[in-house]
Amino acid sequence: MDEGLTESGAWPIAPAKEPPNPELTSVKRLLTLLDKTAKSSRTYGVANPVAQKFFQQMFEGLTTHLATYSKLAFLVQRSELYFNGEVVYRSEQGSSNESVAFKLYSDGIRELAFLEGLSAEDLSFLLDSLWDSLDPEENDDDIVTRLWSKNLSTITLVTAEEIAKASIGGEVFALPTAGMMEAPESNLRDLLDREQARVRKGMGTGLEGGGDSETGNSGTPAGIGTGGGASRQAGRFRSGHAGYEVSDEELAELAKEIEAESTRDNMTYLLDMLTAILASEKSPVLLSKLLDLWGNVLDSLTAQGKWTVLDSVLGLLHATAEVRPDLGDDHKKQLAALLDDLGRPERMKMIEAYLNKIPDATTEGLTTVLLSMASAAVPALCALLANLEAPAHQAIVAEALETLAKDQPDHVLRGLSDRRPRYVKNLLAILLKWNNPRFADSIEKLVRYPDIQVRKEVVRAIGIFRPNGNGMKLLQFLNDTEESVRFAALKLLMTGQYKTPYSAWAPLVSTDTFMDRTLSEKRAVFLALRATSSDEVIPFFESLMTERSWTNRKKKEELAALAAEALGKLATPAGLIALELGQKKGGAAVRQACTAALALAQRQQHLKQAAS
């Protein structure tokens, strides 16, 4: 039966959740800042603005903590830091060898404590010692030696060597090291200090063996021979190293760490190495080789579609000149060429091959990568846009072109002559977003483009770039084989914003084939004709209303009725006169249409007068 069950066999009610410990919360936050400070200093150097910012935040937070609690001490294990028996810091998976905990542990530090009054100089010296940022010619000692030589009054250490020395000797001198790592961190230094004081007190008094009233002068208990002394003498030859038992749980945790380290991302590991070298290498020859190697890295990441990693690498290279102000002119030129060549055609072919091979490939970070390219990459980006197959991928490249090609649109304009409708529509979308009327001339050349959707987009673009003025270009679309294209052009012409002489309309409306178009289209044509040609069209409408013909009589009467409707909607004085004439001389159907148009005109006039 489980020990946690009550007598009735039920689980006990869980205790209420304790409120968060403010001291523990503060410690965790400080260790997070310590980790950030260490990483930024190790990668970019302590003089970097980012590293200095994190350091300042950590120092201010630590000062506030010490002013409140007077002391901050924690135990050090291989991959964790403990505070009051709780883990407050744990190494990230795959990076334990670079963590603060491992660095302290590997240099023999088992406890680290900060005391109130800590100065920024002392904290900086500790971090510099920790990550070997000091001058290697002047400081080739280990961390512990450096700190002891500095004699820092507000930073104390307990080392593995101290624990080992305290464990040498007889049974009475053995520290309870097995419990040390389980005790609160503030007890480790206290334990050592008490033990050392006890040893010093007993030296030379015969009490080293813990003698009392029952001991002899030699400290040997009465009635006991030299066997006791032999026992103590044997204790002197014991190992000075403190041993620790490893539980099954700890073994399992170690196995997990080993497995994680063996399966780590080699690419990230290599990039971290290259970054560290780039931030610290002083040799001009090695720097030149390293920058050449970064070009191969960019190619590899591009071919594999690692857009987010590639974006991070590009950000690193862009910041290199700022992080490394000591770079020579040759290296700066080499770095600039590395970034300028980002959009070369060969690399664009890599992007094309990857995206077309994997239509549903993730594109996170690709936009930023494309926008990182120089304007010289515009021709290659146009070719990439033309060759991509997935609309989602095309949209990403089009977005980049919209930004990069805005000041040099020639490559986009030349692409309008391409025979791939999908590509041309993407280019038209880019031009429409730029909204520059000077592009209208190039767009109007696509009046007879084979694809219907492209022609409709051309009509829409003309309406945006030329919202008024001469409507001759729109008139060309009225002979289009696609009705939807014709109606798109007629909608613009009916707005009254365009002017077109009747002579331009005559070839369309005077042919017998015009009568074969649908009633709705003929009505739209007459309304557009009246809106663009004004009273110039009245003689044509008048002839339709008064002409008597025996051939195609029904269709001609239909045209006359549409003409009367158009005149009635606009209701100009000349138009009203033409309607009155048609009411007198037209056939029965025409007279009826003219009467209805005049009534409509009169209602409109009354409404205008009432409104005024």
Describe this structure in words.
It is a single chain. The chain is mainly alpha-helical and 612 residues long. Among the domains are: 159 residues, no CATH class; 112 residues. The protein has 30 helices and 7 strands. The chain has a 5-stranded antiparallel sheet, with helices on both faces. A hairpin with a 2-residue loop joins β2 and β3. It starts with 21 loop residues before the first helix and ends with a helix.
**What's the helix count?**
30
Biggest beta-sheet profile: 5 strands, antiparallel
Number of beta-strand segments: 7
Q: Which value, in Å, is the CA radius of gyration?
A: 44 Å
**Assembly level:** single chain
Portion in strands: 5-15%
The helix content, as a percent range, equals 55-70%
Unreliable runs, pLDDT <50, ≥5 residues? 1-14, 169-186, 204-242
The shape is elongated
**Which structural category fits the helices and strands?**
mainly alpha
Strand order of the largest sheet: 3-2-1-4-5
Provide the residue-averaged pLDDT.
81
Distance between the termini: 97 Å
Features:
60% helix, 612 residues, mainly alpha, five-stranded antiparallel β-sheet, disordered N terminus, single chain, elongated, 5% strand
SSE topology:
Elements: H1 22-44, H2 49-69, E1 71-76, E2 80-83, E3 86-90, H3 100-106, E4 109-115, H4 120-130, H5 143-150, E5 155-159, H6 160-166, H7 177-180, H8 186-202, H9 227-235, H10 248-262, H11 266-280, H12 284-304, H13 307-323, H14 329-340, H15 345-357, H16 366-371, H17 378-387, H18 391-404, H19 410-414, H20 421-434, H21 440-444, H22 452-465, E6 469-470, H23 472-475, H24 483-493, E7 498-499, H25 502-509, H26 519-533, H27 538-546, H28 553-570, H29 573-585, H30 588-611
Parallel strand pairs: 6-7
Antiparallel strand pairs: 1-2, 1-4, 2-3, 4-5
Helix pairs in contact: 1-2, 11-13, 12-14, 12-15, 15-17, 17-18, 18-20, 20-22, 22-24, 24-26, 26-28, 27-28, 27-29, 28-29, 28-30, 29-30
